[in-house]
Write a structure and sequence with these properties.
- By secondary structure, the protein is an alpha/beta fold.
- The protein has one domain: 3-Layer(aba) Sandwich (Rossmann fold).
- 44% of the residues lie in helices and 15% in strands.
- The protein has helices spanning 17-28, 40-50, 62-71, 94-122, 143-162, 182-187, 190-197, 206-218; strands at residues 8-12, 32-37, 53-56, 76-79, 125-130, 168-175, 227-230.
- A 7-stranded parallel β-sheet has the order 3-2-1-4-5-6-7, with helices on both faces.
- α1 links the parallel β1 and β2.
- The radius of gyration is 18 Å and the shape is globular.
- InterPro entries: NAD(P)-bd_dom_sf, SDR_fam.
- GO terms for molecular function: oxidoreductase activity.
- Pfam families: adh_short.
- Belongs to the short-chain dehydrogenases/reductases (SDR) family.
- Keywords: Oxidoreductase.
């Protein structure tokens, strides 16, 4: 189904990184885009730049999210908001578990519950869940994050079953390392994380993820692209290790 057959989109975690890039790409396609995030200042900057409709809402604020989804019929939902805390389950706190389950999984379940019935009734819609390679592969630390993303992986497959017989498509995006500040938010030191995980590496940009999503949405209606695993070419499959290549001498 071409973009022209869709009118409205909701993107969570939209103020920076992949979320902002998705908003920008959708606006170029002519969609009415509702951008949801907590940071009102960055959302307003995004709105000025793209013409999106900003909503300074915590994705876990169920009352606010319910009001928004009751006011607007969304043809596209992109569940992009996500958090992670450092460390394995051995060092996890109650707060670590509650935060990640609430943002990464519970909020997604509620948004799907609130928007998918309308898509099914209209026989039109596309749900995009931003998951992670952590949903499929296990590597050191971040036990709770792995568990929540595995839940999104299972949910994405189940939604295809729930929508059987309807033209509602579901796509799961599983990025590896991308040039965003997620590692800095986990460690609490953005500059140090950039030096360790981003600077000097050949990584996908947020716009690359947005382009992949646009490709899935623009596919013919008879085509459902169920899963995309998007890694840096130099990232070890199934792990976080990414090779840093020195610039070639000229």
């Amino acid at each position: 189904m071409p973009f022209s057959d869709y009118k409205t989109a909701l993107v969570t975690g939209a103020s920076t990184g992949m979320g902002a890039a998705i908003v920008e790409r959708f606006r170029r396609e002519g969609l009415e885009v509702h951008a949801l995030a907590r940071n009102a200042e960055r959302l307003n900057e995004l709105a000025e730049r793209t013409g999106c409709i900003p909503h300074a809402i915590d994705v876990c604020d169920l009352d606010a999210v319910t009001r928004l989804t009751s006011e607007v019929e969304f043809d596209i939902l992109v569940n992009n908001a996500g958090v992670s805390t450092k460390g394995s389950i051995l060092s996890a706190t109650e707060g670590d578990i509650d935060l990640q389950v609430e943002v990464n999984l519970q909020a997604v379940l509620h948004l799907v519950r609130l928007t998918m019935p309308g898509m099914v009734a209209r026989d039109r819609g596309h749900i995009v869940n931003i998951s992670s390679i952590a949903a499929i592969y296990n590597f050191g630390g971040n036990s709770i994050y792995h568990a929540t993303k595995a839940g999104i992986h299972a949910l994405s497959r189940q939604l295809r079953v729930d929508a059987t017989g309807k033209r509602v498509r579901v796509t799961e995006i599983c990025p590896g390392r991308v040039a965003t500040d997620i590692f800095g938010h986990v460690s609490g030191n953005i500059e140090a994380a950039r030096k360790e995980f981003i600077d000097g590496f050949e990584l996908p940009q947020p716009s690359d993820i947005a382009d992949a999503i646009a490709f899935a949405i623009a596919a013919p209606l008879a085509v459902n692209i169920s899963n995309m695993e998007i890694l840096p070419t130099l990232q070890v499959p199934g792990g976080l290790t990414t090779i840093k290549r020195e610039p070639e001498a000229r």
